[in-house]
Amino acid sequence: MSEKPKKSISSLGERRKRFAWLVPFANLRITLTLLSFSMILIFVATLEQVRIGIRGAQAEFFESMYGIWHYPEQFWGGDILNFLPIPIPGGYLLGGLLILNLLAAFITRFQWTGKKLVFNSSTLESSCFGSGNLPPRQCRKSPACK
Hints:
Elements: H1 12-18, H2 28-62, E1 66-70, H3 78-81, E2 85-89, H4 91-109, H5 114-117, H6 121-131, H7 137-141
Antiparallel strand pairs: 1-2
């Protein structure tokens, strides 16, 4: 007579079993490592702006999968280390991996409920109005806003 309650398809345990291949990508250490590499990328690209300019640094480091950095001669030990090319992950690689990490964490860790998944149109209108893109419904009907 005591029947087990049926788990919904979107329960956390079911999703972790179904998307077991995503669980390693949802690791917090991966997130922190990728964010650290992002900080290094920004630092290196800032230094390279002196040599190749803003657009060149953007194209070489942020709009690529990887970038090659040469240790500056002006730094301590630069005369010795300048010949050594140092590969660093580019913006496309880091951004793609961070998106994968975020989606994996969302799918495998967070509890989904109807209350959280329901989209509130008034929230969208207030956020769009705040950015100046779309006036709220009440303002669109008012002759003062036209």
